[in-house]
Amino acid sequence: MGDNKKSKVIAMYLPQYHEIPENNEFWGEGFTDWVSVKKAEPLYEGHIQPKEPLNDNYYDLANIEVLRWQAKIAKDAGIYGFCFYHYWFENDKPLLDKPVYNLLNDKSIELPFCFAWDNTSWVRSWSKFSGNAWAPKYDKKEVDDQGREFLLKLDYGGEKEWAAHFNYLLPFFKDPRYIKSNGKPVFLFFSTNGIEKLKQIEDCWRKLAVKNGFPGIYLISKRDPIIRKKLMDTEFVYQPILSGWQRTQVIKKYIKKYLKIDIKDKQPMVYDYDKVWKAVLRNAKQSSRKNILLGGFVNYDDTPRRGKNGRIIKNGSPKKFQYYFRKLMEISSASGKEFLFITAWNEWGEGAYLEPDKENKYAYLNAVKKVLLEGKSENDR
């Protein structure tokens, strides 16, 4: 890719907005991430919660018209495609795949897409709502009142299970809209859990890809500040976590494990938007010559899911986002990186979304459009 060709922007996409039996069993009838979003509360003066979608569009992703609308406004802003979070657990169990099947079965929707396997277990741990938790991958300690630590357990299994997983993905890989790099389907791993087993899965899937007529498969792992072993074809930088606080989490884990001191956040951790984005850009410049795909973020506030144990990036605005996103795009494109990932299209429970809301309307999408489709601006800020 030449220096003048822009990286293709892929927005991370959360499918947790349609009812499934597991959600009903774990957290109550009708649970989706909208439940946490609607029940969010401001935790200090000036803290804007709950976040509200424009026109009260608390959509149901079982409705194909929602995906049609999302594809249109994303395309209008110049976004290349969506990266759907993919959930696959033991016993060959996929979850939250209604939206991608809707997409697969409706060829009229013009939307390039790929998958990011959130290869972790679901455990009950951190929600501020009793019985309503959708746990992050790094917190697996607490149990619910029935003593069940794991709601859904990740088990990579063996070659039989790896082949079954690949065959589940194969119809999507064969779709002409599925995002490919040099003809190879793009697939992300969101965790480096079980790295030795992941290498075996990697070898298995490469053989299966060739067997099924592809020149290979383009495998991407999320950049891990701990893991230094060569894994997959490349890495991608997931922001704002890496530049914002992941290294801090590593330090806290060390303190708890080796010094036996338990650090608990009793109030939200608050970060400054400009400082985090400047760290993102420093990270991007350091990675520009490496085989690493870059990432940026829209905003962040996960207190709808974590309450007082959440993290907030404050002082963001569409104008600031446009300025920093342009800088990131320039770094990514100038270094010839094919893809650039953005957090996120619709992570409402983490305050990371491009979709229109009541506060900013279409301002964040318009900022993306100005960077991607309307050329260079002399004064973004």
Note the main attributes of this structure.
single chain, 381 residues, alpha/beta, 8-stranded parallel beta barrel, 3-stranded mixed sheet, 35% helix
Radius of gyration: 20 Å
| Approximate helicity band | 25-40%
Reading the helices and strands in chain order gives EHHHEEHEEEHEEHEEHEHEEHEHEEEH
Low-pLDDT stretches are: 126-133, 135-145, 248-263
* Helical stretch tally: 11
Overall, the morphology is: globular
Termini separation comes to 29 Å
Strand content: 15-25%
Mean pLDDT: 86
Helix and strand composition category: alpha/beta
Largest sheet: 8 strands, parallel, barrel
Q: Record the strand order, biggest sheet.
A: 1-2-4-8-9-10-12-15
What's the count of strands?
A: 17
Describe the fold and architecture.
- By secondary structure, the chain is an alpha/beta fold.
- Helix content is about 35%, strand content about 20%.
- The protein has eleven helices and 17 strands.
- The strands form four sheets. Strands 1-2-4-8-9-10-12-15 form an eight-stranded parallel barrel, surrounded by four helices. Strands 11-14-13 form a three-stranded mixed sheet. A two-stranded antiparallel sheet has the order 5-6.
- Strand 7 and strand 8 form a beta hairpin.
- It is globular.
- It starts with 7 loop residues before the first strand and ends in a 9-residue tail after the last helix.
